[in-house]
UniProtKB/TrEMBL annotation:
Transmembrane segments: none annotated. PANTHER family: L-RHAMNOSE MUTAROTASE. It comes from the Bacteria. It holds the Pfam family rhaM. It comes from Streptomyces bangladeshensis. This is L-rhamnose mutarotase.
Length: 106
């Protein structure tokens, strides 16, 4: 199982709305994530907008491709893009750059 961690930055003026959106993620989005192989997926948000994402998957590239092929993901990403800083026209899911794991206590 691959463990994937990534960072993004949520705009300071959108933090409350970002939290609210993730308190009510669309059921079809949740189903699509599970079907595409996203497991143990968590998002952590710091007060300054730093967002840390973590997930486990058999194959991250395949999990991303699986989501990219869904209509619900395209709609979700379009709605979420304005919440983030420095995307430069890239969708949030395309801006996720996994961090290199340097330690893991099994």
């Amino acid at each position: 199982m691959q463990r994937v961690c990534f960072l993004l930055k949520v705009r300071a003026d959108r933090l409350d709305e970002y939290r609210a959106r993730h308190a009510a993620v669309w059921p079809e989005m949740l189903d699509a994530l599970s079907a595409a192989g996203w497991h143990n997926y968590s998002l952590f948000l710091r007060e300054d907008g730093l967002l840390v994402g973590y997930l486990e998957t058999e194959d991250f590239a395949a999990a991303q491709a699986g989501m990219a092929a869904t209509d619900v993901n395209a709609r979700w990403q379009a709605e979420m893009a304005p919440f983030f800083e420095a995307l430069d026209g890239t969708r949030p899911d395309e801006a996720m750059r996994p961090l290199t794991e340097v330690f893991h206590l099994a």
